[in-house]
Design goal:
Number of strands of chain A: 0
Strand content of chain A: under 5%
Largest interface: A-B, 48 and 49 residues
Radius of gyration of chain A: 18 Å
Order of helices and strands of chain B: HHHHHHH
CATH architecture of chain B: Up-down Bundle
Helix content of chain B: over 70%
CATH superfamily of chain B: Cytochrome c oxidase, subunit III, four-helix bundle
Structural class of chain A: mainly alpha
CATH topology of chain B: Four Helix Bundle (Hemerythrin (Met), subunit A)
Distance between the termini of chain B: 61 Å
Structural class of chain B: mainly alpha
Largest sheet of chain A: none
Oligomer: heterodimer
Number of domains of chain A: 2
Number of helices of chain A: 4
Shape of chain B: elongated
């Protein structure tokens, strides 16, 4: 999250539990729509080796925007972030480990 | 007396000073990450391992899935605006945005129903191949979560309509919103890993 984005979010905060303003939520919504458009554009442009990493980065950006601003983790207690990230890290580790075990290790052993 | 008891029940705090409902719900969401992680792992492990078709590129309709993805993303925006409406005590705003969430969630489920029936018509069933099994289980469980979310939103809509959700009880909507946004982020991951990355 860039410093500029953080400043914009804080500038838009109102007195409802540290949440952002309606205008800020609309801006996040528009960015999410644009990122989705970029994802589909990248899919149709068939960018080769760059395509998968690019799609993952765009997807991660959307993920962070929703979790950070729509789910208010950016403004809420760090305890909630810790609880969520703990589960998320375990899940990512599990997916990554299984992918390595089933896709890369057999190929390396062949 | 009864009102005082209700007000007291709405504010459970843990020793950290944080609301126990929110701590509990974020823990639930953390566990849901692992739940969908297992389903996604299974899909990824067996990706490309189907011995007979239909294969993903035979059945996936990217423009259609893009529309349903867009609809679900916009429902997340509507959800956060509904919460804002409840927090401000603006009943009209809260009702209109909750109705939008319900409609968008239902549209997403309609797209998924169409997609599933289309796939079955093309010969892809739960038993047809590992692609069919892993795809239907993963997206089916996501669809079940969206269905629960829509029912939850309808409940909130009725409560707002009957003036049962004043700003003091906005936490109920915030927690429902956490669930709805989580369902959205799961789809963000599914859309890329299942549909776009071949």
């Amino acid at each position: 999250m860039s410093t500029q984005t953080e400043e914009l979010a804080h500038a838009g905060q109102d007195d409802h539990g540290g949440h952002a303003s309606v205008g800020f939520y609309w801006m996040i919504g528009i960015i999410l729509a644009v990122l989705t458009g970029l994802e589909v554009g990248a899919y149709y442009m068939e960018l080769g080796a760059v395509e998968a990493p690019l799609l993952l980065v765009l997807s991660a950006a959307k993920f962070v925007l929703v979790v950070g601003f729509f789910m208010h983790l950016k403004f809420d207690s760090k305890v909630f972030t810790g609880v969520f990230v703990a589960g998320l890290v375990l899940a990512v580790f599990m997916v990554s480990a299984l992918m390595v075990l089933y896709h890369w290790l057999p190929a390396a052993g062949a | 007396m009864a009102e005082a008891a209700v007000a007291h029940d709405d504010h459970h705090y843990t020793s950290t000073g944080l609301n126990s409902w929110k701590v509990g719900f974020w823990t639930f969401i953390g566990s849901e990450c692992l739940f969908f992680g297992t389903l996604l792992s299974t899909y990824m492990v067996y990706k490309g391992a189907a011995l007979e078709g239909p294969y993903p590129h035979d059945v996936f309709d990217i423009p259609l899935t893009t529309i349903s993805t867009f609809v679900l993303l916009m429902s997340s925006l509507a959800m956060v605006l509904a919460l804002d409406g409840v927090q401000r005590g603006n009943k009209k705003l809260a009702l209109s945005w909750l109705a939008t969430v319900i409609v968008f969630g239902s549209i997403f489920l309609g797209f998924q129903y169409y997609e599933f029936t289309h796939f079955v018509h093309e010969g892809l069933t739960l038993q047809q191949s590992v692609f069919g099994s892993t795809f239907f289980v993963l997206t089916g469980f996501h669809g079940a979560h969206v269905t629960v979310g829509v029912i939850w939103m309808i409940t909130l809509f009725v409560m707002v309509l009957r003036d049962k959700l004043p700003p003091a009880k906005a936490l109920s909507v915030e927690i429902a919103g956490l669930y709805w946004h989580f369902v959205d982020i799961v789809w963000i991951v599914i859309f890329v890993l299942v549909y776009l990355i071949q």
